[in-house]
Write a structure and sequence with these properties.
Blueprint (H helix, E strand, L loop, with lengths): L16 E3 L2 E3 L2 E6 L6 H14 L4 E7 L6 H11 L7 E2 L14 H9 L11 H10 L6 E5 L4 H8 L10 H8 E7 L5 E2 L2 H4 L2 H10 L4 E4 L1 H4 L3 E2 L11 H12 L8 E2 L1 H10 L6 E3 L4 E4 L5 E4 L6 E6 L3 H12 L7
Helix pairs in contact: 1-11, 1-12, 2-3, 3-10, 4-5, 5-6, 5-8
Length: 328
């Protein structure tokens, strides 16, 4: 059965909720590998576009890939969209460490902010804990479009100067839900999940709040990027797409699949405006990182299902990806 208007935090999700004449909007912590693929570029561009439209607040942007070019790449995009002070964190030693074969992260950092190459960043867990502790209860949307390494470390974290709570309790109190570009439905063997399978297993079995998934099969059918690549070299978003469309997998260079952008969309806007939602069930992960969906157990997990023709979503995403900041 597909959800219609059944009551849930996802089915009832509104873009903005007014209370006492104050506008409340999603408070986002964005967790990204920012490579090896480059749909992360489109995702962070969308995130800033929606923040510029007043639809969300970006609390932090953390890297789940510990290659030294990843965090500087994130900062390039935060700077471009006039948010240089957004906290950026880097993962622990056990997380994946690699970049794309075409070294697109180096190209972006060298072109727009080479001084960031030697910058030291705080740990992602410390950023998570500091940011979460400062937020109202049940208010934060955690959005992951990469490995689950940081979130696993957060769940394992102990009390510190930011909070007397352990990681699980901090999440339970401060987080509203997790939006994850992860897995495949009804079964899959997806990169974000299997690259750090032990972290994924811990997160998806231990996570104490609702989860909404955008699976591999969603973004695999949505192609974007060609229009973005034409914006000009002043834009690191355009540069990222132009360079990657020519060099990442040039045999499919016209556009690129759009996995991460769909997760941004459903984290900030009402998912049911664009997709169907599954009934509640459980995302089950095996030790090797493969997953399957168990519809007989209500673990407060759901996944999105295509509703519109793919071109409809493509146009929507690409419009947001082409957003350009106003520079003084």
């Amino acid at each position: 059965m597909i959800l219609g208007t059944l009551g849930s935090c996802f089915a009832q999700k509104e873009r903005e909720v007014r209370k006492d004449d104050v506008v409340y909007k999603p408070k986002i912590i964005f967790d990204t590998d920012m490579g090896p693929d480059y749909d992360d570029i489109g995702a962070i561009a969308m995130l800033h576009a929606l923040a510029d439209r007043g639809e969300c607040e970006i609390l932090a942007t953390v890297s789940c890939d510990r290659h030294p070019t990843i965090a500087p790449t994130i900062e390039v995009y935060n700077r471009y969209f006039n948010r240089p002070d957004i906290p950026i964190g880097v993962p622990g030693k056990g997380s994946p460490d690699f970049t794309a074969p075409n070294n697109w992260n180096d190209t972006i950092v060298n072109a727009y902010a080479p001084e960031l190459r030697n910058k030291d960043y705080p740990s992602a867990v410390s950023v998570y804990r500091k940011v979460l502790a400062a937020q109202p209860d049940n208010s934060v949307t955690m959005l992951t479009v990469g490995f689950l390494s940081n979130i696993s470390d957060l769940l394992n974290s102990t009390p510190d100067e930011y909070s007397a709570l352990n990681g699980v309790d901090l999440v339970k109190i401060k987080v509203k839900h997790l939006i994850a570009m992860a897995g495949g439905f009804p079964e899959g063997d997806e990169f974000n999940v299997n690259k750090d399978a032990s972290a994924s297993m811990q997160v998806f079995t231990k996570w104490p709040k609702p989860i909404l998934f955008s699976g591999f099969e969603i973004g695999a059918k949505i192609f974007t990027g060609a229009k973005v690549a034409q914006l000009g070299s002043h834009s690191p978003v355009a540069k990222g797409y132009e360079y990657n469309l020519k060099t990442y997998r040039p045999q499919i260079a016209k556009n690129r699949q759009s996995w991460d952008q769909t997760a941004v969309l459903i984290a900030i806007r009402n998912p049911q405006d664009y997709f169907y939602l599954s009934d509640p069930g459980k995302f089950v992960i095996k030790e090797d990182g493969k997953n399957f969906w168990d519809p007989n157990i209500d673990a407060s997990h759901r996944f999105i299902i295509h509703k519109y023709p793919y071109n409809y979503i493509e146009n929507l995403l690409e419009e947001l990806m082409m957003h350009q900041p106003t520079h003084e």
